[in-house]
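Researcher: Structure prediction, please.
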Amino acid sequence: MSRDINNKYWDEELETLPREELEKRQLADLQEIVKFAYDHAPYYKRSFDEAGVKPEDIKTLKDIQKFPFINKTTQRDTQGVGSFLGELAAVPEEDVVFISTSSGSTGVPTMSPFTKKDFDEFQDTESRWFWQIGMRPNDRYVHALNFSLYVGGPDVIGAQNLGALCIWGGTLPSERLLFVLKTYQPTVIWTSPSYAWQLGEKALKSGIDPKKDLNIKKIIVAGELGGSIDATRKAIEDIWGAEVYDFYGLSDIFGACAAMCEAKDGLHIAENHILVETVDIHTGEVLEPGQVGELVFTTLRKHARPLIRFRTGDIGRIDTTKCSCGRTHGRIHILGRKDDMFIVSAVNVFPSDIEAVVREHKGITGEYLIRIFEKDFTNKYAVEIEKSADNPNSDDEVAAEVTAALKARIGVKPARVVVHPDGGLNTRSEHKSKRVIDERNLDYNI
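Model: Predicted structure follows.
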């Protein structure tokens, strides 16, 4: 199928469906996948029966609220039980053509299996996101993501299916990646936000001006919140002279489930594949669209391992109004991970808010580290930063400036701000950067 490269939509009919028609299609797919899960996945048969619900109870999209939640613990507890794929799987192993695994950063790595149909639809969605940010067949694309079991690795196939020239970079050392960028002059790259910023810094220090010596026009970032933080995105764009677009994915579903468009007002989520709910993080009560809570996803078309009411652990909201770009699929706005949020003086603090302050503040490098600790049975936080080499102010002056900025942004000031020289923090990474250290001994789970 040939596409008009001037058409901004990969699949115009799907992407601009009237909301009523989109939800009608969602309902048909929801009814089918819930029945498929009940009939073929041992866990769902058991859990639905225990909850007193049946697939036939799904008459409207809201009826999904009658069904029980699952989460990462459910995945771990059922993995390998009864079969290699476990009790959440709804197809035999011979129907599975690909598995990825989670990083295991919050526990035992969990598998994510795909049938061929699941995988092909996954890659068509990736093509849609690439097209959405402006990638076209005449682009050269570097996929600088980990290929080792990571669900984002195969996303490069979506770019190939679109027709772009693809360079499977993987996690190359910075020097080698800069060589690739300078030699092959690609126009698009995908990496993490922290690494995109650090790679630009390394280029400048090695005598390469990303704006003049390289040809990157668009940078896709994912895996961290930075791409949806205006200050971080602008910092990356200023170094590279390129447009930055944030993507969002889950190893539990597929590579990128949501992506920015040119409006950069949230990330369009593939609602033809995912039904989105937002729930209260404490009670599980379903919230109205637009309210902030934990995002809960139900996969509508993934048959290898359907996820029915999967609590993602991500805090955010969904906007289901039509975007200025013309797309009707909802946009998610991610604030942070439930695991990362902490409470100080009754204020919910997200690392993303601290990052926004640090990245937009003049005279510091943008690197930071957050330490959470307890004192007198209350939560406290400290922030460590780096002063730019050309900043003439004293460390105490810089600390006072940043403390005031954090107080103004968040509503509660840090217990202390520690100032390091440029390069003094060990936070630079070619993958995800470790930014939060929790030193508390008390149980502050939310």
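Model: The chain is about 30% helix and 25% strand.
Researcher: Thanks, that helps.
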